[in-house]
Amino acid sequence: MRVLRYFVAAVWAVPSGRVALVVLALFLGLAVLGPWIAPFDPMARTYGADGRLVRLAGPSAEHWLGTTLMGRDIASQMLYGARPAFLVGGMTAVGTVLIGLNIGLVAGYFGGRVDAVLMRITDIFLGLPFLPFIIVVLAMSGRSIWTIIFAMTIVMWRSTARVIRAQVLSLREMPFVAAARTTGAGDWAILYREIAPNVLPLALVSTAFALAWAIITEASIGFLGFGDPNVISWGSILYDAYASQVMYRAPWWVVPPGIAIMVLVSAVYFMGRAYEQVINPRLRAI
Amino acid sequence: MGRFVLRRLLHMAITFFAMITLMFFLFRMLPGDPTATVISPALDADARAAMQARFGLDRPLIEQYFVYLASLARLDFGLSFRTSRPVWELIELRLVNTLLLILPSMIAAYVIGAIGGALMAWYRGGRAEGSLVLAATALQSAPVFWLGMLAILVFSIWLDWFPTGHIVTPGRFPEPSWRMYLTLDFLHHLALPFLVNTLYNLCFPLLLMRSTMLSTIGEDYVELARMKGLRERQVLYGHAMRNSLLPLATTLPMILGWSVAGSVVIETVFSWPGLGLLMIEGITRSDYPVVQGAFLLIAVLTILGTFVADLLYGLLDPRIVYR
């Protein structure tokens, strides 16, 4: 919690970061409230006064974003789709950074054989093709939101681990580490009390970028048709549109999910960059 | 240098080996029985046992593993469940298709991104530059398959400039052959996926180059180059940009891996018959030998990409000590 408050305060100090935070808060609000404020059941088929299915209707006062080929309300689907984006993205980002941070810390601090083994393992994971691996896991073990989070975390921690390790390598030569050692602190105490707080900013940047990646990847999984069949996500809306083969007659079906993903992920990127500027003033333009 | 290359080669071999092992056991340990599509669970126990013996599935897992390794060494990826033809036959042309799409587009993205990013930093602070940063971030944040869908919507459906997908006009080449890459028709089909992929992948090098350049411009040697009386262009390209290329090079292996892996998405949108699409088709048809073969090849490309980029990095930065 304290870390979160510090992070938000830091990002708030940068103008672009402030905009990003407001946008993120709006989306988060939609994710929480979405299912309650959605005007229709997202899976319900809408029938017109003449008893026929309202297929591919354009945006109107009743259906803000029109309807799908099956007569489903797109605005409601969009509102339901915010939640999985945050849930999957957030849990993956946190899992990624927790694993990456610990592996990076241990590898960088202990060095030698421990480092060599851990970095070899990281290399093996770096060789795993990102999306294909996730899809294979999903195809083999069933499509559920938890499998998606699990598979994404497994392939994402590797880059965090490398970044953190590089930072720890330089930190461990610092005088404050030597000072802690003379006071009789053990390895683990030095690692987690002295070094870990100093790599925290870097870990937070990693979290932001992992979040952005996870949201895009979750959408890609949905688009390829491997999303959780019981969950409506922005990716799955696009999958339905693509698979229907008639999306070209209904731009209102194709455009909104992409815009939502784009705005949300942009906000996350800008938040990450704003924070980077705070911790590394050299990045500031001019 | 020689020892460094040797060591990297050894690392690469270990990674390959680990990958193959991981895949082998993953395919067998995850819940779900891939053989169910071939060996029907409805068969009686004796018939099933006979089938399993034929495929070698009755042997211990370890023995199966070594048989698998031995076949892989001979480029034998097994037979497709569906067509009963060797998987390698299917993969061969698909591999070429993927490379023809991904490699040129990555090279274009990096060259344009590096030069564009350098120029953005050089003429920083303007309104145009600010909106370019915003545009690049937005583009980078959009899912690439969605960009592809929009491109099809605008350029194929409304304007009718490009075909909506496939590698050549369907029916023109009943049997895929090498000749089809030499036609204008192929280039016409390549254009849209190439443009979308390039535009999407361009954002990352562009933004990275810009931020690296911003800190390089403040360095003393840039000031010195200027004081020597060099022309602005010489300072920009010969000094500032040259030294900013390094961080860009470090990201190359990662990005190359991502783009090969991400080809799954772009190939699906444009029905581009590459490795990624082959893998997806394999999954929907429960053709696991094909899935496994396609996945392994995508992994090989990723690892090879990392290896080449590692060597390049060493060549670019004279400060790197080969050990």
Provide an overview of this structure.
Chain A has 286 residues and is mainly α. Chain A is built from 10 helices and no strands. Chain A has helices at 2-12, 15-37, 74-110, 112-127, 130-141, 145-171, 175-182, 187-223, 234-243, 251-279. The longest helix of chain A is centred in the first third of the chain and has 37 residues, at 74-110. Chain A is elongated and about 85 Å long. In chain A, 49% of the residues are buried. Chain B has 11 helices and no strands. The model of chain B has no long low-confidence stretch (mean pLDDT 80). At the A-B interface, helix 4, helix 5, helix 8, helix 9 and helix 10 of A face helix 1, helix 5, helix 6, helix 7 and helix 9 of B.
Features:
heterodimer, A: 286 residues, mainly alpha, 10 helices, elongated, B: 323 residues, 11 helices, globular
Give the termini separation of chain B: 8 Å
Low-confidence stretches of chain A: none
Structural class of chain B: mainly alpha
Tell me what portion of residues of chain A adopts beta-strand conformation. Answer: under 5%
Mean pLDDT across all residues of chain B, rounded?
80
Biggest sheet descriptor of chain A: none
How far is it from the N-terminal to the C-terminal residue of chain A, by CA? 34 Å
| Annotation field: number of helices of chain A | 10
Helix and strand string of chain B, N-terminal first?
A: HHHHHHHHHHH
From the spread of the alpha carbons, the general shape of chain A counts as elongated
Strand content of chain B: under 5%
Give the H and E element order of chain A: HHHHHHHHHH
Oligomer: heterodimer
Give the tally of β-strands of chain A: 0
Task: Return residue spans of chain B where pLDDT drops below 50 for at least 5 consecutive residues.
Answer: none
The main β sheet of chain B shows up as: none
Q: Helix amount of chain A, in percent?
A: over 70%
Largest interface: A-B, 50 and 59 residues
